[in-house]
């Protein structure tokens, strides 16, 4: 009998989680994987296109003007520089009146991309300063308490095993055990009550919704900018430029208009199309981030139902999912590698489903009691014996 108890002690000791106070939770994720992907694309892609636009601008003149043949090289360079600075297309309408059309989106392209990247980074800053401090403290406490609650359950079974070994009368042991279960001595309700309080808090979920709403707002503003300004000059490769201003206004040998060609038009078109395509692909991802808040991650909760006093599901304590608790559950799922107890409880849940037809197993205490060689409830022969003694 002592050999069986020794084996049970070893099994329970191995089931205890190691204490990682010194190095634990250093890699805590405070951004969901999809949010991190949206941030990298929404901020990094405009910066990449900006570098492409600047590289094209610095590699050579973005326009090429057809100066008169009697112009020298320096005069032709002046024409290119002057037309690029003004970047205005002169034409005549049907009534013969002069009409001016500005082509400034070509010149403002790299700076507009920089402004877009800065705008897309604002929701990230909002999340970092408004939500991350509170979220990190919540995750540290909850992850620590979940692992501690699991360890408490294992130590409780170890204590029960020692008491059973020392007890000379099995009736006394089982009576005390049933009394403890009836009085809920095995339950540690601090964590459950804390999570229940988080259902009535909405600061994290409000910040998360505001972050994604700002992303959608800035994406819509990007569409408006591209459609209103870029589309108007998207196909215009040549324009008529006038350099007869200032001291050159009365010069008769200078033509009224000089035709110029935008050599950077292909870069402009690539940037416009790729920006519209990338942000169109990001919109469903952002909308999906909204929809995740409309349902509970019940799989994570069902696994931790094995812990004593963690019956948010069975007691139907979950209400509307749009609250801080749902956000915390999403981040617990993202930090599942930090929850060492999750893998152990997942295995126990699988084993529980296979053994639930033979035994009344509700918590990890019941299951580990069974594995340690004790019945989760009073054996039938003891119950029958008590009935015989007290008919």
UniProtKB/TrEMBL annotation:
Glycosylated residues, chain numbering: 70
Name the UniProt record assigns to this protein: Pannexin
Family as reported in the entry's similarity comment: Belongs to the pannexin family.
Residue ranges crossing the lipid bilayer per the database entry: 108-127, 267-290
Pfam family, one: Innexin
InterPro entries, alphabetized: Innexin, Pannexin
Gene Ontology biological-process annotations: cell-cell signaling; osteoblast differentiation; positive regulation of interleukin-1 production
Cell compartment(s), UniProt: Cell membrane; Endoplasmic reticulum membrane
Annotated membrane topology: Multi-pass membrane protein
UniProt entry keywords in alphabetical sequence: Cell membrane, Endoplasmic reticulum, Glycoprotein, Ion channel, Ion transport, Membrane, Transmembrane, Transmembrane helix, Transport
Function, as annotated: Structural component of the gap junctions and the hemichannels.
A GO term from the CC aspect: endoplasmic reticulum membrane
Organism: Sciurus vulgaris (Eurasian red squirrel)
């Amino acid at each position: 009998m002592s050999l069986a108890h020794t084996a049970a002690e070893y099994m329970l000791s191995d089931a205890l989680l190691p204490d990682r106070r010194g190095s634990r939770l250093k890699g805590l994720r405070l951004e969901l994987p999809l949010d991190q992907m949206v941030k990298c694309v929404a901020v990094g892609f405009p910066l990449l296109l900006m570098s492409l636009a600047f590289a094209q601008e610095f590699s050579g003149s973005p326009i090429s003007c057809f100066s008169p043949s009697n112009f020298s090289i320096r005069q032709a360079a002046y024409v290119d520089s002057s037309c690029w600075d003004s970047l205005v297309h002169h034409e005549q309408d049907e009534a013969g009146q002069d009409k001016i059309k500005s082509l400034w989106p070509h010149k403002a392209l790299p700076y507009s991309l920089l402004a877009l990247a800065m705008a897309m980074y604002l929701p990230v800053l909002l999340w970092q300063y408004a939500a991350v401090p509170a979220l990190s403290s919540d995750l540290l406490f909850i992850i620590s308490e979940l692992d501690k609650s699991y360890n408490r359950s294992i130590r409780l079974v170890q204590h029960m095993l020692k008491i059973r070994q020392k007890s000379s009368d099995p009736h006394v042991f089982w009576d005390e055990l049933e009394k403890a279960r009836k009085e809920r001595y095995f339950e540690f309700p601090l964590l459950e009550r804390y999570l229940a309080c988080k259902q009535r808090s909405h600061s994290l979920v409000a910040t998360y919704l505001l972050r994604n709403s700002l992303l959608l707002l800035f994406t819509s503003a990007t569409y408006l900018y591209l459609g209103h300004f870029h589309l108007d000059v998207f196909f215009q490769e040549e324009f008529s430029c006038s350099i007869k201003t200032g001291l050159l206004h009365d010069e008769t040998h200078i033509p009224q208009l000089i035709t110029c060609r935008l050599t950077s038009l292909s870069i402009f078109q690539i940037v416009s199309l790729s920006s519209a395509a990338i942000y169109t692909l990001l919109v469903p991802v952002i909308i999906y981030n909204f929809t995740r808040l409309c349902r509970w991650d019940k799989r994570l909760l069902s696994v931790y139902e094995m812990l004593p006093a963690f019956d948010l599901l069975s007691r139907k304590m979950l209400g509307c999912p749009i609250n801080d608790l749902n956000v915390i559950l999403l981040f617990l799922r993202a930090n599942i590698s930090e929850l060492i107890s999750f893998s152990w409880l997942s295995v126990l849940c699988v084993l529980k489903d296979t053994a639930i037809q033979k035994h009344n197993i509700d918590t990890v205490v019941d299951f580990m009691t069974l594995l340690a060689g004790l019945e989760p409830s009073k054996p039938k022969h003891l119950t029958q014996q008590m009935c015989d003694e007290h008919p």
